[in-house]
Design a protein that fits this description.
alpha/beta, Protocatechuate 4,5-dioxygenase, Chain B, 6-stranded mixed beta sheet, two-stranded parallel sheet, 10 helices, 8 strands, globular, binds fe (ii) ion, metal-binding, ferrous iron binding, zinc, oxidoreductase, Extradiol_dOase_DODA
């Protein structure tokens, strides 16, 4: 087995609804724990792909706005996010563009991009006392799983330099099939008046099986194959919240990652059918101090 003791862990976080910023949950506690651990190990920065920003045609973009605004977060009081200071990492952003171009991507900076809650909700939860230097990578709107695996693979070497790579999306995330009644009537996003439906339970389990039973290149194959799962389209009406799982598989699916399996660390169901699973791939215990 190849050594992986110089590589930072990688995370796939299901950010859920905006209420995951406004309400407490075991997932939020876990995000904070991951942030504390990252700071304790002096990460150089965060590199994150979210689920709300996709570039058109053949392009992938990197956020290069030195003073980004925040898109508002529906249903959440502005006091929970308005004063949080974003910390865009210009130097690493430009470096990511170079790395992506060297890997054959049509990569470019986007100097006008404002940050969206898919990424800064996670950053606030992980790092409530201050955002580390952060680089946001867009998706590509063709939503080709293999393209997004290749994006993660291209940026994987940054794990050897102390960068934390994160995918922010959703394990089961279909807004059309959520049960919105208790949320609209009572602002209760965690209400669970009935069990989740079978398709949601089935896909949630398939995702867990895929990432906990495969490592290295097999992880990449298993995660991309999930998009052919019979319940995939029920679990994801659109592909946007699943692309960062591909990015993660690229970032932690090299030959050198053999033996590094995903681990389900926390999970929060919302709106009856949305499963916010939080996965870690690798740990600081095996990374360089
Ligand atoms: Fe989202």
């Amino acid at each position: 087995m190849a050594s992986n003791n110089l590589l930072t862990p990688v995370y796939f976080f299901s950010h859920g609804s905006t209420m995951m910023l406004g309400e407490e949950s075991s997932s939020a506690q876990y995000w904070k724990q991951c942030g504390d651990e990252a700071l304790a190990h002096n990460i150089k920065g965060v590199i994150i792909m979210g689920a709300h920003w996709a570039a058109l045609n053949d392009v992938v973009q990197v956020a290069t706005n030195p003073k980004p605004d925040k898109s508002p977060v529906a249903y959440v009081h502005p006091s929970k996010y308005a004063n949080y200071k974003l910390n865009p990492d210009m130097r690493t952003g430009n470096r990511c563009i170079d790395m992506l171009r060297a890997a054959g991507f049509e990569a470019e900076g986007n100097p006008g991009f404002n940050w969206i809650h898919d990424t800064y909700l996670i950053l606030i939860r992980m790092f409530p006392n201050g955002c580390p230097p952060t680089t946001i990578i867009s998706m590509n709107a063709r939503y080709d799983p293999h393209y997004h695996v290749a994006l993660g693979a291209a940026l994987r070497p940054l794990r050897k330099e102390g960068y934390l790579l994160i995918g922010s999306g959703g394990a089961v995330h279909n807004l059309y099939r959520n049960v919105w009644g208790p949320m609209l009537a009572y602002r209760d996003n965690f209400a669970q008046q009935t069990p989740p439906e079978d398709w949601a339970l089935e896909f949630r389990q398939s995702f867990q099986d895929a990432v906990e039973s495969n490592s290295g290149p097999r992880l990449r194959r298993a995660v991309t194959r999930l998009m052919k799962h019979p319940q995939y389209r029920d679990a994801h009406a659109t592909d946007d919240h699943f692309m960062s799982a591909m990015f993660v598989a690229g970032a932690v699916g090299d030959d050198e990652d053999e033996g590094t399996y995903g681990q389900l660390k926390a999970e929060t169901w919302e709106l009856t059918n949305m499963c916010n699973s939080q996965y870690a791939f690798g740990s600081w215990a095996t990374a360089a101090a």
